[in-house]
Amino acid sequence: MRLSVDTVTSFLHGRGVITPDTPTTATVLAGGVSGATFLVYAGGVRYVVKQPLPFLAVADEWPARQERAGVEAAALGWLADLTPGHLPRLLDYDPSEFVLTMTAAPPGWAEWRSVLLGGRVDVAAGATLGRVLGTWHASSAGAPERLATYGDLTMFLELRGDPYHRTVAARRPDLAEPVLACLDELLTRQSCLVHGDFSPKNVLVGAAVGAADASGTPAADLWVLDFEVAHAGNPVFDVAFLLHHLVMKAVHLSTTGSAGARCAAELLACADAFRAEYAAAGGLAVDEAAVVRHTGALLLARVHGKSPAAYLSADGAAEVSALGAHAVTGELGSVAELFPHAPGPPADQPDVGRTVSR
Ligand SMILES: Nc1ncnc2c1ncn2[C@@H]1O[C@H](COP(=O)(O)OP(=O)(O)O)[C@@H](O)[C@H]1O
Ligand SMILES: [Mg+2]
After folding, report:
1. Which ligand sits closest to the CA of 101?
2. Å from CA of 202 to ligand 2 middle
3. Are 231 and 194 in contact (CB under 8 A)?
4. pLDDT tens across 115-149, in order?
């Protein structure tokens, strides 16, 4: 049964999540070929209902795709115990229809991606994300038996390895070796629970960011969503995944807006805060050279892979590609060098921000 905005309320009645006499309204939050997400108001409570669907374009090769809902349900349960304030709470999972019901973020919360693309960079959000991710990686690494249930990498290969690394390798044979070396590292080190889509589009932020928590660490009102690609994997992937998004935002804002240098500096500060809090929380991906190489592979993927970043201009894409090439081959030694538009770059940095190879 494919849920629609007309059937989602009766589905929740059937599952016992809400009683039939509760007044409800339902709206579509996101819908497409990969899945559908609904927001349901019932009795003053807001629920999110999510049902992934088979990827129609590759349905023949992907018959079990909806089972990623079960992965998401399991990961939500595990990680909520570790960082309860930073992800939705799973209320119900229907394994026969692959439907998750979870708590909804408060009204007014926004996708962090849109906030960043609007040129508003909150360093505290980066710090909070680092703490959350570091906690997940550290804790899951200490639970090998539970981690083993996420050991199947088929989904990760189909959603990341093939469309990203292997496609870049085919389209940029000059860079195939370092890019495939990254993929090999991702497939052969299964040391912790990796989110797999740790991207600003899967982060919701509240208005009241920047407050301090009890430990004095800056905290942000922030949830991480979308655990469908969770797997036992290499922690460097999540760290590089977030960083490559911050780098692309910096390039984009620098090539399209007048406040580019300020935004790039803030995005670099955000990346630094993310990595510092990640390490402080016990996160495992702390080898900066590896982080930079993997970030480079992902930057290349967003230009030459199967899911190019839609918001990049031609110049922006060329610059991201050049940065990615420098990074994946080991020419860049630090995360700071991935942000050439931020003021005060190291003197010996390759001039990737201005000399664009096409
Ligand atoms: N618990 C939630 N509260 C509020 N909004 C949500 C929630 N879950 C998902 N959304 C919204 O729906 C969108 C799609 O959900 P997501 O879990 O990311 O699925 P998809 O796999 O389709 O990307 C999110 O980007 C977010 O805007
Ligand atoms: Mg998503």
Report:
1. 1
2. 5
3. yes
4. 999 999 999 999 999 999 999 999 999 999 999 99
Q: Which ligand is nearest to the CA of 52?
A: 1
Residue 218 belongs to some domain of the structure: yes
Pocket probe mutation, ligand 1, options 3, 68, 201, 226, max atoms within 8 Å of Cβ: 226
User: Residues, the chain, total?
Assistant: 358
37 and 67 belong to one structural domain: yes
129 C-alpha to ligand 1 centroid (Å) = 17
What range does the domain containing 159 cover? 110-338
Binding site membership of 104 for ligand 1 (Cβ less than 6 Å): yes
- Per-residue pLDDT tens digits for 286-336: 899 999 999 999 999 999 998 899 999 999 999 999 999 999 999 998 999
Report the CATH number that the domain containing residue 12 is assigned in CATH. 3.30.200.20
| Reported pTM | 0.92
Find, among 41, 15, 12, 44, the residue nearest to 29 by Cα: 41
Sign, Cα dihedral of 355, 275, 348, 298: negative
